[in-house]
TrEMBL record:
Record GO biological process: actin filament organization
Binding-site residues, ATP: G85, E86, S87, G88, A89, G90, K91, T92
Domain of life, source organism: Eukaryota
Every Myosin motor domain range: 1-117
A GO molecular-function descriptor: actin filament binding
Protein name as it appears in the record: Myosin motor domain-containing protein
Annotated Gene Ontology cellular component terms: cytoplasm; membrane; myosin complex
Family: Belongs to the TRAFAC class myosin-kinesin ATPase superfamily. Myosin family.
UniProt keyword terms in alphabetical order: Actin-binding, ATP-binding, Motor protein, Myosin, Nucleotide-binding
A Pfam family the protein falls into: Myosin_head
Amino acid sequence: TTTVLKCLQARYAIDVFYTKAGCSLVAINPFRPVQSLYSQELMKEYHTVDSLQELKPHIFTVAEESYRNVQSQIPLVNQSIIVSGESGAGKTWTSRCLMKFYATVAASSDIPEGSIT
């Protein structure tokens, strides 16, 4: 709707590229590098915060939420993240950010003694 579009335009104008919409995350491609938006420090912040609701909407929120779900479910429950959009919307970049987040988090996690890696 027009209201949603105006909201997204206003957020984009102030360099806010992620917006939570119910259980979905709307990402807008900034079409320019924004290094601080994907830094190691930011990954750590999203991984170590007690409540993800304390932080701004971000692709790292989605990644951490799915990571926590996998870690806490017994029996394990598969997680899926759907990245969709038009050509040039940033799907490949978003997928890379997700994979980098998981690799970084997995590498930083404590591995129990005697476990097979």
